[in-house]
Amino acid sequence: MITALILIPIVIAALFLLTPEGFGLVIIAISGLAGWEWAQFIGWHSQGKRIATGVGFAALLLLMQLSISDFYHLIDIPMIKNGLWAGLVWWIAAILLVISYPNSANLWKNSVILKLLFGILTLIPFYCGMMVLRTLDYSINAYTGAWWLLYVMLLVWAADSGAYAFGRLMGKHKMAPKVSPGKTLEGLVGGLITAGIVSWLFTHFAPISNVPNHLLLISGVVVVVSVFGDLVESMFKRVSGIKDSSHLIPGHGGILDRIDSLTAAIPVFAGLVFLVSSGFQL
């Protein structure tokens, strides 16, 4: 709880106070640490290989950011748009891998290339989604994108809390027992209910003027995908034989343990809104 009380204000400050460039650098740093942790999933346990992996992820994202000349129209940049499409495709595939686990693990558990590719498909769309949402309508109102990013985060946090509460109270039907025995279908329903309440409250009380079409439907899909984001990391940890991705955050495990749901929720929300739906009606 102490760690959470420290981290939450820092996250909110980064959302609302940093410039797009500065915010991007923070996401790159977080992704670099996540890449350092992902190296264990690949099978690279030596500190040298883990550091090289983290630096490699950060360097790749930094090169992407340095190539951006216009931060106010990111969705029009092919690199960013393709990153979001890749994220949508990857999370469909990742959900199928979880559903068919442990049989699906035979397809990738011995392949360094595939496990590295899975990391790339997790972290690059995450960066693209974070940046597209943060810079939404930035030239008109610098805080619009920050509010929408906060919305997705609140959805994920509410769904996680609701799933935990409903699962403890009435959970009977396991959702993916071979990956994460604690998750139940009753918990998923509870998470959807609490996320729906958050969605209603946000659209009525947050200082926003443009709401995407089909927001409730998109939000429901995002909540379900965020649950699978958690399950995907659990699957990789189970195959790798590790409990926490690291011990960087006291009481919380590693970076991936904290952002696993967001790595799915952020690019899927951005992809559904900008690529599949009709945007933010701007």
Automatic annotation (TrEMBL):
Its EC number is 2.7.7.41. It comes from the Bacteria. Pathway: Lipid metabolism; Phospholipid metabolism; CDP-diacylglycerol biosynthesis; CDP-diacylglycerol from sn-glycerol 3-phosphate: step 3/3. The chain crosses the membrane at residues 6-30, 51-72, 84-101, 113-133, 145-166, 187-208, 214-232. The keyword Transferase applies. GO terms for biological process: CDP-diacylglycerol biosynthetic process. InterPro entries: PC_trans. It is an enzyme of class 2 (transferase). This is Phosphatidate cytidylyltransferase. It comes from Proteus myxofaciens ATCC 19692. The lineage of its organism: Bacteria, Pseudomonadati, Pseudomonadota, Gammaproteobacteria, Enterobacterales.
